[in-house]
From TrEMBL:
InterPro entries: SAM-dependent_MTases_sf, UbiG_MeTrfase. This is Ubiquinone biosynthesis O-methyltransferase. Pfam families: Methyltransf_23 (PF13489). It comes from the Bacteria. It comes from Parazoarcus communis.
Length: 234
């Protein structure tokens, strides 16, 4: 029997907030603000129109809907029933088409290997017990030569100070307890996990927040939040 790669406390945490997922002034405000950045970054690299795309850890569907709006055929998977319920309900408001499924990345990889042109796994790896297992599932789900995109948090003192002390306690951008520092992942670790799974790292990009202007931007600084583009070996 395969152990589910999920933390029940993490699932409960996001399930309790699920009804607020599409409120741009809620705890999910940062996701709404960074979504155009990460969406454009993905589209610039992979050209989403006409692609078969999988969004792992889709939550309420903010990124999933964004990719669908650019012409992708999108499947979103998550292990929170409440979040998926909110995601499905929002489709009636947005008019987008996304196939949402309650299934783990590992189980879906057994069911649909090498099915997708693009796989995204954003803001999720720092919430699972075994990120290497999730990354291996991403590699199995994407077609040879296909794209896999990750985003997560670096593990260092600056990331602790800004992502936890600053964002959760001082600026209150996120609820307290959203992140656990021990689960943060260094870019070198994420790159190693990716290579071990048969994914070749391509581009490493930082995502930074200016507390004075309250604006997020992509750049070279990967000290805190960062994104990694990989491709499956052919």
């Amino acid at each position: 029997m395969t152990t589910l790669n999920a933390d029940p406390a993490e699932l409960q945490k996001f399930s309790d907030l699920a009804h607020r997922w599409w409120d741009p002034a809620s705890e999910f405000k940062p996701l709404h603000e960074i979504n155009p950045l990460r969406l454009n970054w993905i589209d610039d690299i992979a050209s989403l129109a006409g692609k078969d795309v999988l969004d792992i850890g889709c939550g309420g569907g903010i990124l999933s809907e964004g990719m669908a709006s650019l012409g992708a055929t999108v499947t979103g998977i998550d292990l929170s029933e409440k979040a998926l319920g909110v995601a499905r309900l929002h489709l009636f408001e947005s008019g987008q088409k996304v196939d949402y499924r309650l299934v783990s990345a590992e189980a879906f990889a057994e069911e649909s290997p090498a099915r997708f042109d693009v796989v995204t796994c954003m803001e999720m790896l720092e919430h699972v017990p075994d990120p290497a297992s999730t990354i291996a599932a991403c590699a199995k789900l994407v077609k040879p030569g296909g794209h896999v995109f990750f985003s997560t948090l670096n593990r260092n003192l600056k990331a602790y100070a800004l992502a936890i002390i600053g964002a959760e306690y001082l600026l209150k951008l996120l609820p307290r307890g959203t992140h656990e520092y021990a689960k943060f992942i260094k870019p070198s670790e994420l790159s190693r996990y990716s290579r071990n799974a048969g994914l070749t790292p391509q581009t490493l990009t930082g995502m930074n927040y200016n507390p004075l202007t309250k604006v997020y931007a992509l750049g070279r600084n990967t000290d805190v939040n960062y994104l990694l583009h990989t491709r499956r070996e052919t």
